[in-house]
Specification:
alpha+beta, NADH Oxidase, 4-stranded antiparallel sheet, 8 helices, 8 strands, globular
Length: about 230
């Protein structure tokens, strides 16, 4: 039998040969700069249009998110996509209840002062207006075929990486989003009737921006402020 040169057994497990496109140094610099320039245009948006978005776009951005690395390749995430108006209304009502409590009783004066440039408050109409809500759940453990718990590893780190890729894919598709994290978020597990091994991690409204949207003119840290090289 002819040996497959693209498959190798390492410590008893099948591995496949990996190859990746390599670029010249000039092209690497050009590509990395072009990507940065594009990502620099990304902004968190709180005013959405109800213009429909093709479901295939949502499918593709979720598949992109699922390429994230994860502890022991457990992929401890679930993406719930909500477009049903009634469910979106329930989510808005529950989220605004928690947000009102946070803005009036939970947040410190310093926190509220830091939020002032964002011009935001406890009202979250985008939860009903955006065509899609993507709720990212993390899974601390799994159940095997016999119903026994199996631990997942580096769960928050893994799901955070997937969320970052998801946000990037949303921007690359020409759509906008906002990282919404009402606290606590256990109402999402109840409304969506998720199993007991899932915990709400992040809520992302996804769609087009509304007309004439203005966003805070926030300054991002420069390279010299957030990167340190040890040559």
């Amino acid at each position: 039998m002819e040996e497959n040169q693209d498959i190798k057994i390492i410590k008893g497990f099948e591995h496949v040969k990996y190859s990746h496109v390599q670029y010249s140094q000039k092209e690497m610099i050009e590509r990395s700069k072009k990507f940065y320039d594009w990502m620099e245009t990304r902004r968190s948006v709180r005013e959405f249009s109800d213009k429909p978005v093709p479901k295939e776009v949502i499918d593709n951005i979720l598949l992109s998110a699922s390429t994230a690395p994860s502890g022991a390749h457990k992929q401890p995430w679930t993406f719930c996509v909500v477009s049903n108006p009634e469910i979106k209304t329930k989510i808005r009502e529950a989220a605004e209840k928690e947000e009102y409590e946070s803005y009036t009783n939970r947040m410190s004066d310093e926190w509220l002062d830091d939020l002032k440039p964002m011009a935001t408050d406890w009202k979250k109409p985008f939860l009903e207006i955006a065509p899609y809500l993507i709720i990212v759940f993390k899974k601390p453990f799994e159940y095997d075929s016999e119903g026994k718990k199996r631990q997942n590893y580096y769960v928050s780190e893994s799901v955070g990486l997937a969320a970052g890729i998801l946000i990037t894919a949303i921007h690359d598709a020409g759509l906008v989003t906002l990282t919404h994290t009402p606290s606590p978020m256990n109402f999402l597990q109840k409304i969506l009737e998720r199993p007991d091994n899932e915990r709400a991690f992040l809520l992302l409204p996804v769609g087009y921006e509304a007309e004439d949207v203005f966003v805070p003119n926030n300054r991002r840290k420069g390279l010299e402020e957030m990167a340190f090289y040890y040559d």
